[in-house]
Every structure is written in structure tokens, then in C-alpha cells.
């Protein structure tokens, strides 16, 4: 067997790092949109709004029940067959939309669990001093639920960063796509994929560090 | 509703920013030719140190110089290219597209600009397989959506071949010994074996003649683009530029129709 080509790997690092902003950008955009959508879904599910609750249930069931890759193909390649205007949606937008829909379904459930997990006595106490339902939600429940939901939401964000690698199948050259192409011309597969694995790993490690700091901050009220 | 609007706006802004970053063109301008390719088919279209290059890239740029079109390359996995052409995301595909009757019925093809042959490639040292006739009972792999799949399925003993299609990296799986052979065009295969570290060898002679051309959508706009490109190809052929590009990448001329049936290409020893 041949030796590891370290020169090639070193040369590949700056090339691949050039694609990191796109990968992180798609994940960040997806995360922001998914959070907004997930909060909406969670509130609908918690408050059991008629019709909307059923719709939310169906939405979550579908987007949690099918692979992200299937969803991306369905929307990017499939739907334009019937809705011609969807052709104008490019691969990057389609990826962000796919990540948003897919991950919002998961996140809605963990936000819902965080909200329902807050002890009933908190709501009762808030109401006893005359807070309305909306006030109770905003001032009492959500701040506590945020603390509970943060670790799982960060988990989803990490998962989302890695899931952007599927964008290559929609013609988007992001981190994984760029690696795939470099490997296809050098045929140094191990070197190329090892470099990209380490890049993903470092990014996720950096995020985990941020998560720790964030959790510490959210825990301040509970420390004695 | 506000949430929805914010979502829509965020999407619009991010996609706008990222699109510019990526350089993917959306709308076809009159003087822009959007050319799809895989960027993973050495040495026709490949990426090295972030630079898209290869025979197809040079040919398309030369064509653009002739027609005055702005050539814009879009890379995507090979199997996705046809869908992108059909849905109008690109105008043509420069990826060694072989002319077949089925494709001819659907697309407006340019004049052929590469003459090649379908080649069986095996792991170095595999002397069981000397050509397409030895593939019975073997695992043979190829790129999804490629014409070689059709070629093999037309063989009388096709159901005795274990045929598998991949998205990419077929060379590696044969080099590793997971599959017995892959099928590719002779020119790329020879070049990969010559230039790259994979332990591979050609198995016998090419088994089918193939002609490569650029497919365009078969409508008024597509045919107009095709005609412009054909004119450019003719000029490039006459002034020797096409030949020069071929010699640069392959050390031989693959753009000229072979004179005799089954003529050997001069590039390589088998």
C-alpha cells in the first residue's frame, strides 16, 4: 500500500475551507428558519388549536417519517414536474428549505416536550398573581423551557451542519461536494475524505464548546 | 403570519447571498450558455485545487470565444444533469455525452466532437477478463444514468451480469476489488490508468464505438443554441484548435472520426 500523501492533504485544507462558509451559512439559515417554524408548531400542539393541531401533527409525521434525502429529491427534482415555477428555486434555497422543514419537525417535538415538562405549579402560580395565558407563556414557561430544550436543539443544529452534505446531490458544491470532486480527480480517496472529516469534526467541537458556555449561562439562576 | 414573513424574507436574503457566493445562474440571459458537467470525470471534466478544468472545459471555452456566448459552468452529480437540462436549469451538458437513438429522440444534439469506444476496465493483475464477453457472472459497475448501462443491458447474456450503478467512485471500488470491472470510455480510462495511482488495467479492446456530442433542449431556443455551437465547432475543427485541445489532454486526436471500422486510438498501449 502507498503511504499517506500528506502534501496533498495539506494543499486540500485551504481549498476545502473555502467552502465552509457556504456549509455553515446553509446550516445557520436552516436553523433560524427551523426554530421559528418549530416554535409555531410547538405552540399549536401545546395549545391544541383545532384543525391547526391536526395539520401540525400531519406535518411532523411526514417530515419526521421520511429521509431528508427523499424530501430534497421530492422537492427539487419531483415537484417542478407539476409546479413549473419551482424550477427557479436553486439548490441552495432548496437545501435550506429542506433542512428547515425536516428539522423543524424534530425540533417542534422537543420544544413541545420542554414546554409541557415545566411543572403545572408554575402556571398556577403565574395565574394566581393575575398573569394572562400569553404572559405566563412568555415570562414564566418559555424562559424555563428554553433552558430545557437547548441541549437537544444544539444537537439538531450539529446534525443539520452535517446534513448540508446532502446538498451536493442537488448540484450545490458545498464542503462535501468539493471534496468529492477533488477525490474524483486525484483518486486519493482516503486523504480527501479524512481531511473533510476532520474539518467537520473541528467545527462541531467548536460548537459543542459554545453549547457548554450557553448552558452554563442558562443555568445561572439555578446555581447556589 | 409575521413568522411566516420573516421566514420567507430570511430565505430570500440567505439564498440571494449564498447564490452570489456560489455563482449559480438562475435566469438564462441571451448570451449566456449554462453548461452542466459532473466535474468528476478525469480528464474530461475535473476539479483540482478548486479549479474546474479538463478537455470539456477547454472545448466549451473555445466555443464561447467563437459564438461570443458567456460560458457558465454548473457542476452537479452526473445522474442529476439530465434533469437539470430538462427543467431548464442548464442549457447543455458537456460530459462525454454519447449520442443514442433514445437521447436523439429527446434532445437536439450538436455535431459529434469526440469519437471513442466503450471499454471494460479491471483491477491490475486480473487476467480472467479480456473483454465484454468475459463479464458473465461478474460484478460490473458504472455511473448511474450513463450510456454504458444501456450498452451492457443489450448484450445477449445481460441477465448473467451482476450490474450495479453508482453515483461516483466506480474506479475506487474496482481498484479495491469489490467489483470485478467497470465500463467507461476508452480515452478516460487510459488516461486515468496512466496518470493516477489506482491499480487498474484495460481489459481487451473497446467493444462499442461511441460518438459524443452536446445535447440541447429540443425547442426553438435550444436548436438556436445548437446551431451556434455547431458553427463554432466547425470553425474550431478547421483552424485546428479542437485538435490542439485534444492533444493537450490526451496526446492524440480524439475529435476526428476514425477512418476505418474499429480503428485503434493512438493514445496508449493496452
UniProtKB/TrEMBL annotation, chain A:
PROSITE patterns: ABC_TM1
Keyword Transit peptide: no
ABC transmembrane type-1 domain segment(s): 20-208
Membrane-spanning ranges: 20-44, 56-76, 82-103, 156-176, 188-210
InterPro entries reported for this sequence: AA_ABC_transptr_permease_3TM, ArtM/GltK/GlnP/TcyL/YhdX-like, MetI-like, MetI-like_sf
UniProt entry tagged with the keyword Transcription regulation: no
Gene Ontology cellular-component annotations: ATP-binding cassette (ABC) transporter complex
Keyword line: Amino-acid transport, Cell membrane, Membrane, Transmembrane, Transmembrane helix, Transport
An MF annotation (GO) of this entry: L-cystine transmembrane transporter activity
Compartment(s) where it occurs, according to its Swiss-Prot or TrEMBL record: Cell inner membrane; Cell membrane
Major localization class: membrane
Membrane topology value: Multi-pass membrane protein
Similarity field: Belongs to the binding-protein-dependent transport system permease family. HisMQ subfamily.
Protein name: Amino acid ABC transporter membrane protein (PAAT family)
Taxonomic classification: Bacteria, Pseudomonadati, Pseudomonadota, Gammaproteobacteria, Oceanospirillales
From TrEMBL, chain B:
InterPro entries from the UniProt entry: Iontro_rcpt_C (IPR001320), Solute-binding_3/MltF_N (IPR001638)
Species: Kushneria indalinina DSM 14324
Family: Belongs to the bacterial solute-binding protein 3 family.
Residues annotated as domain Solute-binding protein family 3/N-terminal: 32-253
Keyword Signal: yes
Key words, A-Z: Signal
Protein name as catalogued: Amino acid ABC transporter substrate-binding protein (PAAT family)
Superkingdom to which the source organism belongs: Bacteria
Domain Ionotropic glutamate receptor C-terminal: start-end pairs: 32-252
Signal peptide region: 1-30
Gene Ontology terms, MF aspect: ligand-gated monoatomic ion channel activity
Disordered: annotated segments: 250-270
GO cellular component: membrane
One Pfam family named in its UniProt record: SBP_bac_3
Amino acid at each position: 500500500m502507498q503511504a499517506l500523501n500528506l502534501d496533498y492533504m495539506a494543499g486540500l485544507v485551504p481549498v476545502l475551507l473555502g467552502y465552509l462558509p457556504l456549509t455553515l451559512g446553509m446550516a445557520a439559515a436552516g436553523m433560524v428558519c427551523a426554530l421559528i417554524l418549530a416554535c409555531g408548531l410547538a405552540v399549536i400542539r401545546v395549545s391544541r388549536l383545532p384543525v391547526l393541531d391536526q395539520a401540525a401533527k400531519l406535518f411532523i409525521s411526514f417530515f419526521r417519517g421520511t429521509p431528508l434525502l427523499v424530501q430534497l429529491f421530492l422537492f427539487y427534482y419531483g415537484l417542478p414536474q407539476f409546479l413549473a415555477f419551482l424550477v427557479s428555486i436553486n439548490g441552495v434555497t432548496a437545501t435550506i428549505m429542506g433542512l428547515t422543514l425536516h428539522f423543524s419537525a424534530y425540533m417542534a417535538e422537543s420544544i413541545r416536550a420542554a414546554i409541557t415538562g415545566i411543572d403545572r405549579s408554575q402556571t398556577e402560580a403565574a395565574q394566581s398573581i393575575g398573569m394572562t395565558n400569553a404572559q405566563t407563556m412568555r415570562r414564566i414557561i418559555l424562559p424555563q423551557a428554553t433552558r430545557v430544550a437547548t441541549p437537544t436543539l444544539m444537537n439538531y443544529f450539529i446534525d443539520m451542519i452535517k446534513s448540508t452534505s446532502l446538498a451536493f446531490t442537488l448540484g450545490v458544491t458545498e464542503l462535501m461536494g468539493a471534496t468529492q470532486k477533488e477525490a474524483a480527480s486525484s483518486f486519493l480517496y482516503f486523504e480527501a475524505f479524512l481531511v473533510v472529516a476532520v474539518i467537520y469534526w473541528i467545527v462541531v467541537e467548536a460548537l459543542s464548546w459554545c453549547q457548554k458556555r450557553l448552558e452554563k449561562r442558562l443555568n445561572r439562576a439555578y446555581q447556589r | 403570519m409575521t413568522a411566516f414573513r420573516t421566514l420567507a424574507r430570511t430565505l430570500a436574503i440567505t439564498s440571494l447571498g449564498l447564490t452570489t457566493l456560489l455563482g449559480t445562474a438562475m435566469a438564462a440571459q441571451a448570451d449566456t450558455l449554462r453548461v452542466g458537467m459532473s466535474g468528476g470525470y478525469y480528464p474530461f471534466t475535473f476539479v483540482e485545487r478548486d479549479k474546474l478544468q479538463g478537455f470539456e472545459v477547454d472545448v466549451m471555452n473555445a466555443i464561447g470565444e467563437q459564438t461570443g456566448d458567456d460560458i457558465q459552468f454548473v457542476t452537479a452529480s452526473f445522474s442529476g444533469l439530465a434533469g437539470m437540462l430538462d427543467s431548464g436549469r442548464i442549457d447543455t451538458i458537456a460530459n462525454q455525452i454519447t449520442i443514442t437513438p433514445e437521447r436523439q429522440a429527446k434532445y437536439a444534439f450538436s455535431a459529434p466532437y469526440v469519437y471513442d469506444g466503450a471499454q471494460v476496465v479491471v483491477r491490475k493483475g486480473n487476467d480472467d477478463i479480456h473483454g465484454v464477453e468475459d463479464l458473465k457472472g461478474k460484478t460490473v459497475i458504472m455511473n448511474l444514468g450513463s450510456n454504458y448501462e444501456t450498452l451492457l443491458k443489450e448484450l445477449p447474456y445481460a441477465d448473467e451480469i451482476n450490474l450495479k450503478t453508482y453515483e461516483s467512485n466506480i474506479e475506487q471500488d474496482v481498484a479495491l476489488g469489490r467489483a470485478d470491472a467497470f465500463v467507461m470510455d476508452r480515452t478516460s480510462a487510459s488516461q486515468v490508468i496512466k496518470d493516477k495511482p489506482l491499480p487498474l488495467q484495460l481489459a481487451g479492446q473497446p467493444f462499442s464505438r461511441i460518438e459524443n456530442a452536446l445535447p440541447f433542449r429540443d425547442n426553438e431556443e435550444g436548436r438556436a443554441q445548437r446551431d451556434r455551437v455547431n458553427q463554432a465547432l466547425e470553425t474550431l475543427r478547421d483552424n485546428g484548435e479542437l485538435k490542439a485541445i485534444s492533444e493537450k489532454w490526451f496526446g492524440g486526436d480524439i475529435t476526428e472520426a476514425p477512418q476505418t471500422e474499429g480503428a485503434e486510438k493512438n493514445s496508449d498501449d493496452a
